[in-house]
Amino acid sequence: MSNDSPGFLQKLPSALPGLALIILTMVVIRNWIEPWMTNAVILGQKGWFVKVLHLNYILLGIICGMLYRNVVFGGKMPDLFNDGFKLSRLMIKTGIILLGSLYTVQAIVKLGSMAIFLIGGFVIMTLLMVLWLGKVFKLDRSMTGVLANALSICGVSAAVATSPAVEAKASHVAYAIATILGFGILTMFTSPFIGHALGLNDLQYGAWVGTGILNSGQVLAACLAFNPNVAPGTAVSVGEIWNIMRVISIPFAVFAVTVWYWAGKELDESAAQKKSLGTLLIEKFPVFVIGFMGMVLLTSLGAFGDVGIQGGPPASDTIKMLRLWMTWIFGFGLVGLGGYIDFKELAKAGGTPLKIGLIVGVTKYVLALVVVLLIKDHLVAI
Amino acid sequence: MAREQKSGSETLGSTGEKSKMTLFKDDRAEDVGAIILSVLVIAVVILLTMK
Question: I need a labelling partner for A346 at 20 to 30 A (CA). Which of A257, A312, A336, A381 fits?
């Protein structure tokens, strides 16, 4: 049906104007705006923007993207730039794959059991809470299913991945995504303040936002806003490994919600939509995670030289350049992500889905912080 | 009703080509694209830092 639509390479030329705008934005931010903010004296304090508002190139990039869409272009990205902004998730995923160069297999194994325990616990708790609240508030069953996975795993991807399995309408997905994005944007901007105010270190902060924030891009942004450095042990290295664990659980959570959805319905002609866990794993597994694991393996085998783990030899030139490029790739991706934050679409959130979303989102966010503070002495450093 | 939705490739529940959040056909194709782009980035970085 869609075989007539042009492929990626044919569409690429039309993406160049948008891509140029994204790159130009980040170049201006990093070369002029950020250095100016670091030196500007406001209210008698040098670097007030950075020290008090915790603004850095990541938050500025997202804000610029949001301004482009909602202010400069009046709520809709013009066709000229639209295709370029569609490359933002490609850049974020590429950056996450390259982020594999921060870890070794030994570090992943050390961290893995704790991350699986925490992430697994929170995913299951959130799922059960949404399903229960959906029943209490008598929310439509399809809407509840979509919201359950959107709030428990990874926001947008999980909501869309769940929708066909629970017969969700486009409006259900729109409500769920508007709810989680609205909440996520709030946490993305407030988390760095809370983290600094509580005196959290990178390990504690990364574990908290990696568990408590709903969307992959927002975890990334919140981590880099707290500490823009990309190196082993920084907030982004901790938060993203937590996030990867959660992303991997998408097929399992889709399966669980599908089973729940169909268990509450009498068997009818639509039973053909039920899928086995194996089928869901093949269809929904996020393949870019394999790229990330490949990168971890290559790094562990020393393919790029020394990684620069604390106490060890300094990072090789290749690793240093890879990390520098990652910061740019993430920067480009997050300007694009900001361009997808549409205030009009966020306004679609409302009613019972918003109520449930806020109850569960805030519970998860606060509980994740409490748990991280409780186990802070047992968190595994990498 | 919602069976034709492609996983992860749209914004806010829209299913049309124009509102897709990716230039790729779907999420899976975008993942593969990200892996290919990563390989290219690594190759360029290795070339640039070769002594």
Answer: A257
